[in-house]
């Protein structure tokens, strides 16, 4: 083929010089792209390693790839912050938009949590099913945007749990419509480039007072994006783009 296809894969699928795939990835390779034996592919795992491969066999159930070369993650001289988006679970497909577009914008990982004002209530098998789907969404977005890494998607049962999990970030921002009225650019202009940024966004309706207290307890700084009230999915993506423009790779 004239164009080498690129796929995000799990390192666990690679063993003894071969990689084998069934399910969604096999369907995409064999049924959608119609790849066949002899076609070359590039596999990138979640550790950032790249693997040059040649499709060895395609059956009804799986696709096998023979690896011909592997390389470690590319070294970079740029200092780009790792951004964690902490998103209160919104309704419908909004969370999927945040995951997809956030991955394209370079988000390092996502913490999703059940906020007091979250309408969806997930637990047990339903929660695991959603987590599997969300991970597939970021994997596809990473492949489409040709990233050499893949964000993780983690679930937290409350705002307090999510805030505590991100407490080690160098810069912690809480998008809150009742936050400080000082312009965001003034807040960020004097700060050094952080190694890790945590950005907390509420669901539809925003945060409850107790949730704001939990985030501020863990050192999150309340900020706003101006006088306009943005939808939850718009706020997360707008803030990510701003941070990537100031300190990242945009």
From TrEMBL:
<dbReference type="InterPro" id="IPR029028">
    <property type="entry name" value="Alpha/beta_knot_MTases"/>
</dbReference>
<feature type="domain" description="Ribosomal RNA small subunit methyltransferase E methyltransferase">
    <location>
        <begin position="82"/>
        <end position="244"/>
    </location>
</feature>
<dbReference type="GO" id="GO:0008168">
    <property type="term" value="F:methyltransferase activity"/>
</dbReference>
<dbReference type="Pfam" id="PF20260">
    <property type="entry name" value="PUA_4"/>
</dbReference>
<keyword id="KW-0808">Transferase</keyword>
<keyword id="KW-0698">rRNA processing</keyword>
<feature type="domain" description="Ribosomal RNA small subunit methyltransferase E PUA-like">
    <location>
        <begin position="22"/>
        <end position="55"/>
    </location>
</feature>
<dbReference type="InterPro" id="IPR046886">
    <property type="entry name" value="RsmE_MTase_dom"/>
</dbReference>
<comment type="similarity">
    <text>Belongs to the RNA methyltransferase RsmE family.</text>
</comment>
<dbReference type="Pfam" id="PF04452">
    <property type="entry name" value="Methyltrans_RNA"/>
</dbReference>
<keyword id="KW-0489">Methyltransferase</keyword>
<protein>
    <recommendedName>
        <fullName>Ribosomal RNA small subunit methyltransferase E</fullName>
        <ecNumber>2.1.1.193</ecNumber>
    </recommendedName>
</protein>
<dbReference type="InterPro" id="IPR046887">
    <property type="entry name" value="RsmE_PUA-like"/>
</dbReference>
<dbReference type="InterPro" id="IPR006700">
    <property type="entry name" value="RsmE"/>
</dbReference>
<dbReference type="InterPro" id="IPR029026">
    <property type="entry name" value="tRNA_m1G_MTases_N"/>
</dbReference>
<dbReference type="InterPro" id="IPR015947">
    <property type="entry name" value="PUA-like_sf"/>
</dbReference>
<keyword id="KW-0963">Cytoplasm</keyword>
<keyword id="KW-0949">S-adenosyl-L-methionine</keyword>
<comment type="function">
    <text>Specifically methylates the N3 position of the uracil ring of uridine 1498 (m3U1498) in 16S rRNA. Acts on the fully assembled 30S ribosomal subunit.</text>
</comment>
<dbReference type="GO" id="GO:0032259">
    <property type="term" value="P:methylation"/>
</dbReference>
